[in-house]
Amino acid sequence: MLRLTAAGARAIVDMSYARHFLDFQGSAIPRAMQKLVVTRLSPNFREAVTLRRDCPVPLPGDGDLLVRNRFVGINASDINYSAGRYDPSVKPPFDIGFEGIGEVVALGLSASARYTVGQTVAYVAPGSFAEYTVVPANIAIPVPSVKPEYLTLIVSGTTAYISLKELGALSEGKKVLVTAAAGGTGQFAVQLSKIAKCHVIGTCSSDDKLAFLKSIGCDRPINHKAEDVQAVLKREYPDGVDVVYESVGGAMFDLALDALATKGRLIIIGFISGYQSPAGLSPIKAGALPAKLLKKSASLHGFFLNHYFSKYQAAMGHLLELYTRGDLVCEVDLGHLAPEGRFIGLDSIFRAVDYMYTGKNIGKLVVELPHCDSSKL
């Protein structure tokens, strides 16, 4: 095991397991690292979060891995987390970031039964916006290499896969409407619905996104800034749509609800249009909701990935298989078209979150954390 000496230097107490605590390139794990910390509760990410530059690198416990993060994923709900909406009992300061991919650079003895130093893993765990993150070995996902495409699957891909499988009742010929279809999770809802032989309509906000949606098989992409979505749906789908995969909220939710066919299903996976507001919600016309659902024998479902972790491993396995076979596009947006260029380094996470809320990203927003050899023991 490792411990800190009185002088603060790191020492290996049990030398028989020393190899578990060296990184795979032979360099020492540094004493300090950078990470993002929520220091005040706010939906304004820049106000809520602080980049701390001299934090101790955490040590893995017996069943843990220490992962050196190489890519981390940006999620719309990062600002819900920074606003304290998921667990009001948690008070600042606390770590932030949901998902990462990188190499195992240290691990506990029990964890070494299944993992080795140098192995690449992806994970969903709090605190990924850091140079190093301790990850319980039992939730780590081995992946073939450090590719950001794998990162797109672990939250965004599994959200689409599990929600549609468990709640969508997809079958050949069903009409599926995906809102924010060119985004991180929308891209998978489109493709998985097409794999199920459904007819897919996707909303987006630019001609570039329109082209992307066509490239992944979307039957009727709609740029809502150029076309009236409600008019298109009424004209081209007069009998309604069977399934809605909805992540926008507000007026788009109302529109999608009205577009449901008899026995239609509306799956809410988010409502990004309201996240930046103090309440976290955009107003909807909820007063008529019971009557609208009753009139169509329609149903409304909420989906939160944390409640479906029993389905997670199987979902990841299937998604990885689809990607490996070339049957799934995992679009990554690393910020090449962002005003200040690619998202590289922890400090660029602030820009990446801002970029997401401009609605310009195509695919999953990902930040690269390049490995630096400058800080050694």
Automatic annotation (TrEMBL):
The segment(s) forming the Enoyl reductase (ER) domain are 44-367
Gene3D superfamilies linked: Medium-chain alcohol dehydrogenases, catalytic domain (3.90.180.10), NAD(P)-binding Rossmann-like Domain (3.40.50.720)
Question: Which PROSITE patterns does the annotation name?
Answer: QOR_ZETA_CRYSTAL
Q: Which reaction does it catalyse?
A: 13,14-dihydro-15-oxo-prostaglandin E1 + NADP(+) = 15-oxoprostaglandin E1 + NADPH + H(+); 13,14-dihydro-15-oxo-PGF2alpha + NADP(+) = 15-oxoprostaglandin F2alpha + NADPH + H(+); 13,14-dihydro-15-oxo-prostaglandin F1alpha + NADP(+) = 15-oxoprostaglandin F1alpha + NADPH + H(+); 13,14-dihydro-15-oxo-prostaglandin E2 + NADP(+) = 15-oxoprostaglandin E2 + NADPH + H(+)
CDD domains, alphabetically? Answer: Mgc45594_like
Q: What is this protein's function?
A: Functions as 15-oxo-prostaglandin 13-reductase and acts on 15-keto-PGE1, 15-keto-PGE2, 15-keto-PGE1-alpha and 15-keto-PGE2-alpha with highest efficiency towards 15-keto-PGE2-alpha. Overexpression represses transcriptional activity of PPARG and inhibits adipocyte differentiation.
Q: What is this protein called?
A: 15-oxoprostaglandin 13-reductase
